Amino acid sequence: MLIDAHCHLDFPDFDADREAVFERARAVGVTHVVVPGTTRKRWPDVLALGRRDDVSVCLGLHPYFMGEHGEQDLAALETALDEHPEVVAIGECGIDARFADTLEAQWRLFDAQLRLARDRRLPVVIHCVRANDRVAKRLRQLALPGGGLIHAFAGSPEQATAFLELGFAVGLGGAVTFDRAQRLRRAVAALPDEGYVLETDSPDMPLVGHRGERNEPARVAEVCRVVAELRGQSLEAVAVSSTATARRLFGL
Prior knowledge:
The protein is an alpha/beta fold and 252 residues long. Helix content is 41%, strand content 16%. It is built from 9 helices and 8 strands. It has an 8-stranded parallel sheet. The longest helix is centred in the middle third of the chain and has 18 residues, at 103-120. The chain is globular.
């Protein structure tokens, strides 16, 4: 049994064949997926997916879409959390340092969501690009009781350790399948069994050999195979460990 701990099955990329995507995932042992929210306008579709037994959902405001977030969205997030106790985490939120022109606004929005997660004692799902050390510093200052997930982790073994010490797990996806990702692969090999989950970030973050293709949850089985090779473990051991961590992290 596998869990895809981060995929965007609410996106229009899946409108034509969403049920077939679920069927292909089940066929390779992916029994549950976690779908994060990215913008307020997408929350209704995320919550609709959450009515399925094989889907859990998060709500948040993603730094990639700063131009789509409005002044009232944080208040709307609080209201949505009140109205939907089935939400398992706040996110996807975070920092994407590739976009320097919005970085100050990103930090304000991220900090507000971290405080909300702290006050609600919910885990937080974090998008962190070129900002691992700065994000770890902020998490250390806030000491979030619910911990969370560093989605699409691509850092060093030392950065992974810093996040683990703060009560976070790291998400392993398509990036680990590329031979050139040597620093990340060293981090994967050094992680404790309880330190990671598997994810696809569908429809994005394609695996090696699938450039230009839409990603989907079934490919978490391939991520599992590569992680097992890097760690010198069996497929079953990696599946058991990653699934247990996802269940603990999100209270599944």
